[in-house]
Amino acid sequence: MKSVIFRTVAPVLTSLMVLFSVFVLLRGHNEPGGGFIGGLIAVSALAIYGMAHGVETVRRAIFFHPMAIAGAGLFTATFAGLISIFAGVPFMTGLWIYPAILGVEIPLSTVFLFDAGVYLVVVGAISSIALSLEERGGE
Amino acid sequence: MDVTALTFLALALPFVAALVAPVLTRFLGQNAAWVLAIAPAAIFLHFLRFVPDVASGEIVTGGYAWIPSFNVSFSWLIDGLSLTFVLLISGIGALIVLYSGGYLKGHPQQGRFFCFILMFMGSMQGLVVSDSFLMLFVFWELTSITSFLLIGFDHGREAARRAALQALIVTGGGGLLLLAGLLILWNVSGVTQLSLLLSFGSELKESPFYFAALLLVLGGAFTKSAQFPFHFWLPNAMEAPTPVSAYLHSATMVKAGVYLLMRLNPVLGGTPEWQLLLPLFGVATLLIGAALAVRETDMKLMLAYTTMSSLGLLVMLIGLGSPHAIEAAALYLVAHALFKGALFMVAGILDHETGSRDLSELGGLRSAMPLTFAIALAGALSMGGLPPFFGFLAKEELYFAFSTFDLRSALFAILTVLGNALMFAVAFAVALKPFLGPRVSMPKHVHEAPLLLWIGPAVLALKGFSIALMSGLAHRLISSPMASAIAGEARTVEISLEPHLGLPFALSVLTVALGGGFYVNLARLRAGMTAILADIGWGPDRGFDQFVRGLVRFAVALTRRLQGGRFEVYMTATFALVALVLLVMPFRYGEFPRAPFFSADVPAHELAIMAIAVAGLFAVVVASDRLTAIVSLGIQGFAVAVIYLLYGAPDLSFTQFMIETLSVVVLALVMTRLQLSPADRRPLPEKMRDVAIALACGLGFGLFLLRVTAVPFDRTLTEFFNLYSKSIAHGANVVNVIIVDFRATDTLGEIAVVMITGLAILALVRLRAGSLKRAVAAELVADESAAEERV
Amino acid sequence: MEAWFALLVGIFFSVAVYLMLSKFIIRVLLGVAVLGNAVNLLIFTGGRLTRGVPPVIPEGAGALAAPAANALPQALILTAIVISFSFFAFLLVLSWRAYNELATDNTDEMRVAEPVNEPVPPLGY
């Protein structure tokens, strides 16, 4: 796994896959995709990067500890559910707003926030698993 | 505030006081007793307000809805019976709190003691005023639990732990019987409140379930009120500090069973079964208790056994059920609470001041402790049934009940006289022996007890005297309403101190004469009883030990049989059962699917994918090296992903692809380190057995699926999601909308699970090598040292 | 079509159960992985099979027309796949640690929690 081609291609591949995972997450509400799938794609990207350049590099690259990312995701998802309190509707009720940014109307919703939380939990928890196993693989 | 709210507060007050007791005791020491006694005193005053109303025949009920949908309420019923009880509980409770302040002065755990005893008080008070069955049961069991805490207060000693556990098991178990009995009463009558139940006439007695309900209720009452053969927990409960004994065994705990019988007398009593069982057990308990009391020299134990006798007497009276018997029960209950409370506290004072409560080690204390002597004498006179004390009235009324001149009455009269005479002897042994005779050398320098200690018994003794003097007023306000409540119809108690010649008086004289004779010959009686008991050898008390040991051994044997620690056995049992259920149930209920129809119009590529999946599966089973196993596992996974894709599930397909990839990666990562062969290294017969179970399971699930797909599909939910996914949730991908919107709370739980497994794996990976071995070794060492401690 | 799937699910379950009945942790682990797929396919088939049309509402339409695949089992299975993976990973690491600590892959010899000759608990109070 330490071939030059792989090591050269891996960063590019990883960035493309992470970008793609975000794209999958965003389009998930209307076409196949979503937080779970997007998160898994991002984990695969990180795993590939880890194989090519070592786990330490990946850990530096994502800056936060994977479980911290997962925790932030769980918090985001819960918070998305709690927003409904301020609107006086039951927990987890989907709420939508349509702010216009630079003349383009962008639909924002607690549902999307929740899906983003799912994405972060999957990315964090599963990459934590994969990375810690890869790390010990060298023993 | 209105009466309802105040009553509710009164019911809650002991628990509040229990909460603040430890803190208060830390600041005030034993003087916290003065503050804490305010709580029961306030309750006493609150309930005192009901006395005029109740005396005029009124029944006060009140409460709040608790679980309205189940028709369960938090409600109380205050009539002559519960009012007397609650006044005794709170009145004596206040005195006991003061007494505990003196008795446990300087004890490091005094705060905890106050806390427990106040909680017990609250439970007992709740029990006697409860109107709803559920509340009655909850408080009933609460008294068991709090008395467990109190009896085991000195938990450093094994005897205390044993006594506490014994009381809990016996009375708590009885509580379960009571619950079953209450459920039957509820089913038969359709009401969940005592006040409504009491308005039932003889319907309950004619019900076919009457006898079952009666036995269950008696099971609860007899265990709580220490009737033979459930009596053994009561003397053992003397392991508790004396204030506990004085409280639990005079006015409260043990009287709960008597209360229950009195309460249910109007609806359950008067039948032949009732009139046979209660007097029989009652008189047996009376005599056995008195006989056992004579044997002892420990003052507390003597009093405990006479308590048992008194309870037997009460149960007998309730069972006899004649007007005089009921009135006698009402009078005797109050009298007993007063004199037994006082005598227990006297025993505690002697123990506290001299360091011993064994009669053979005490003597000649009358000059050193004149006040205590006076209190003890007053208590003993009342207990012995001598004028001018309240006990005399109770006993006269009791003997009136026997003045019907038939064989049954005569028999019970003789036995009761015998029991009473023995109690008389014990009462005077306790009250006179320590104070008369030559001075014996004591472990401590003896002087009169401090105020906190003697005020309680003094008040009780005085009360026993004053009630007798003002019997007219006391009867009108307390005894008559109480007797009416027990009988279920208006009764008037008329007994007074005025002499009345006749059979009752003759029986009284006989009792005193016999009792005097027993007192003089107490030493000889004691020797005789000890010899008899030594001959019998076995009693329910030892039986309890054997029961507990047998239970532990049985549990160990059963656990070893069911949970032998072999993973293979667990799995085999589980899946054999699964197969059994899946294969037998369809036959049993005629739900077997029709012969499957393997349609030929399935496209070839679909069959090919299925074949690949199956091939992957078999490769996993037969794989002999790691790489084959991992790759084969991946093959079946990817095949499943393709199946999802073919059948309109792109989301699933993508997820499955990613997951299978990751699975293969992590499996490869770990497997390279495990250096384990995935091959099955077991003998063939074992494998064949597994194959049989596995095939049965597979067949079961296949048939199950066939049957499921044969019934028409209910599309209601699917249609709902298809219809509203866009219009309500603004999403076109229905699967995603279900996950993140319609069923988002589920998903929240699921990502939490993912997060937790992530954390668990992280912890496992970071665990240093060898730490498990160290942990196990440390545990073994701890076990050994604990075992040494036990030895 | 359902008959083929019933057969397939039956085989999946048989293999999963057979692997899990073995006393060697690696085989149990493989069995758990297969069992996840078996259960998912069971649910998937139970929700009825529709070829090729994913449950996605076409552009401009207000609701999904009838012949699309059933979305509900898909939503159930999607989360199940992720969770069964995380459990699989947990079991994997657990067996790896257990093997490291106890030096055996035979569950019969893993008796830390339930020792072979556990002493009888104290019979006193």
Describe this structure in words.
The complex is a heterotrimer of chains A (139), B (791) and C (125). With 139 residues, chain A is mainly α. Chain A has one domain. Helices cover 73% and strands 6% of the residues of chain A. In chain A, strand 2 and strand 3 form a beta hairpin. The two termini of chain A are 16 Å apart. Chain B is an all-alpha fold and 791 residues long. A two-stranded antiparallel ribbon of chain B has the order 1-2. In chain C, helix 1 packs antiparallel against helix 2 (25-46) and helix 2 packs antiparallel against helix 3. Chain C has three helices and no strands. Chain C has a single domain (2-50, 70-109), classed as Helix Hairpins. At the B-C interface, helix 8, helix 25, helix 26, helix 27 and helix 28 of B face helix 1, helix 2 and helix 3 of C.
Question: How would you summarize what this structure contains?
Answer:
The complex is a heterotrimer of chains A (139), B (791) and C (125). Chain B has 791 residues and is mostly helical. Chain B is 75% helix and 2% strand.
The largest interface is: B-C, 118 and 101 residues
Tell me about the biggest sheet of chain A? 2 strands, antiparallel
Any idea what the radius of gyration of chain A is? 17 Å
Helix content of chain C: 55-70%
Number of domain modules of chain A? 1
How confident is the prediction overall: mean pLDDT of chain C? Answer: 87
What structural class do you assign from the helix and strand content of chain A? Answer: mainly alpha
Low-pLDDT runs of 5+ residues of chain C are none
Number of domains of chain C: 1
What is the oligomer described by this structure? heterotrimer
What would you say the CATH architecture of chain C is?
Orthogonal Bundle
Number of helical elements of chain C: 3
Specify Rg of chain C, calculated over alpha carbons.
22 Å
The counted number of beta strands of chain A is 4
Largest sheet of chain C: none
The helix/strand series of chain A, from N terminus to C terminus, equals HHHHEEEEH
CATH fold call of chain C? Helix Hairpins
Distance between the termini of chain A: 16 Å
